Amino acid sequence: MIFPRTFTALLIGAASPLGCKSESGECQVVSSMTLTDDEKSPSGTSPAELLQLSKPENAAFLWDLGLDGSNPTNAGIEEEVSVAVTTERASGSAQYVVTEQVGNTEQDGNCGPSLHVPVRLSLTTSDGALEEAFEADLILRYATGVASFDSSFAFEDLNGWLTPVAAGADGEVHAEFGEEVRGWVAVVVTLTSDGAARENWTMAGHWGDVAPPEDAP
């Protein structure tokens, strides 16, 4: 399914390196072990084999429209843009992690075994808006068979010219590696009302055939 050009969502929870929270409950870590890059995990995949899944790719990139009909980053939405996506091994140990679902168990939270490898993800768009490298774990969740990368960033730290329309907004980047490379860049604005903070999440741009975040692995 192609991601719609207009999408805004309220983030329910944030992912952590070894566990995650969602409407489905929480994936709680029950065990973990450190692996060398050539060492097979108990589920049969080595960190080196996982890195082979994230081969360099070039893809068409689309700047998305928010609910108000504009892009939340001042990007040139009329331009034809491509993105180069590459990964390389970053410092840090690879880990094999096993989680179990606690809390709300009515929906499958995709908990279970996963392989975590620190990587540096580089995104370069042909319009010069993004020329960035982000560091986080590339995570293979065996329940879904999908390898994914998630990282938060501050717009003022970017090398490209991309800036958010909303003052004080932060950014998030997500990439998936499988039969095709796909992912997105998003803008996150923290709103405070009656003493409570919530995050307003808006798609800024995407590449590949992507699904809404609540449906994505």
Structural features, described:
This protein has one domain (18-207). It has one helix and twelve strands. The chain has one helix at residues 47-53, and strands spanning 8-10, 20-22, 25-35, 57-63, 81-89, 94-102, 113-125, 131-141, 146-154, 170-177, 181-193, 196-207. The protein is globular and about 45 Å long. Residues 1-17 have low confidence and may be disordered.
Short description:
The chain has 217 residues and is mainly β. It has 1 helix and 12 strands; from the N terminus they run βββαβββββββββ. The longest helix is centred in the first third of the chain and has 7 residues, at 47-53.
Helix % is under 10%
The number of helices is 1
Average pLDDT number: 83
- Low-pLDDT windows of residues: 1-17
| Main β sheet profile | 8 strands, antiparallel, barrel
Q: Shape from CA axes?
A: globular
Q: Distance between termini?
A: 14 Å
Order of strands, main sheet, comes to 4-5-7-8-9-10-11-12
Radius of gyration: 17 Å
Query: How much beta, percentage-wise?
Result: over 45%
Order of helices and strands: EEEHEEEEEEEEE
Secondary structural class:
mainly beta
Total strands = 12
Compute the number of structural domains. 1
